[in-house]
Amino acid sequence: MTLLYSEVEEELRSAVRGLLADRCPPAAVLRRVESEPYDLDLWKTLAGEIGVAGLLIPEELGGAGASASEAAVVLEELGRAVAPVPFLTSAVLATQALLPARDALLGELAEGRKTAALAVSFAASPYRPGRGSSVRLEGERLTGTVTGVAGAEVADVLLVPVDGDLYAVEDASVTVVSSLDLTRPVATVTFDRARARRVGACDLAGVLRFGAGLLASEQLGVAEWCLDTTLAYVKERHQFARPVGSFQAIKHRLADLWLDVVRARAAARGAAADASAVSVAVAQSWNAGVAVHVAEEAVQLHGGIGMTWEHPVHLYLKRAKATEIALGTPGDHRAALASLVDVPGPE
To answer: Which of 17, 72, 73, 345 minimizes the number of CB atoms within 10 Å of its CB?
Structure first.
């Protein structure tokens, strides 16, 4: 296993970053959150021209047959841009749930013709996969509610796990609710005897673990943008006739942040290359908190401008805070890690 980026991954990064710089600068994201957060035109371009929607789908099913490491690179770049597209929800979580069944829907997802969402609370975790769901099967129909579902409002198909099986549903009531992260809304999904098609078996805990591992790469991207933007700002902002960044106290804070981000990169790469329970728990135990800490420091080190709505740094802080409790909190993952490596708990 290597934590280094391959040439193919760097080429993919360059393509995604170039498109996002042109179509999704922070100012554009800030404008969108006041009206319609998701940018589906951007998503169609990412899916159709770069092929990100089908990265995890085998070639024989219409996808690229890439590995999780390539998907992780895309998530890093989407995190750097807080891009309002359903890559994590459709191309990672929903796709991973569908893969064992090799369902024909995968081909449509790979081409970007359809978008799917896994009807599971974003606050669910590999350790509590059923959190937020009260859905039950009645014959060939589903009834019940799932709260806090990310990506539901733009999904053509909802994939609903019930009692170890996965069902595809196109008829459900989706109500968007208030969310801290303005770039990734969540919704309450209600099924009222909705017709459901059984897709196959579903290892929900495994899907959420896989998603949590890749979420660490998005958190890395958020932290990288915050650090890079703050570093550029303190070089330009002057106080007492010298750059703010030349003060020793600021240098020490930035050096600590840089070390945190370097460690976060290693943890994210490890979880992408090896989606084992230990690697995922390590990555989320560290990266979730790092993203929040670096974003908080970015707000403070930007001074007064960092507190304004017009500066996009608050979008990154909100994304970091929202993902800190998504797919398991750091505390959940630390507790799981302690159990996995036989660290004794308190008497």
So the answer is: 345
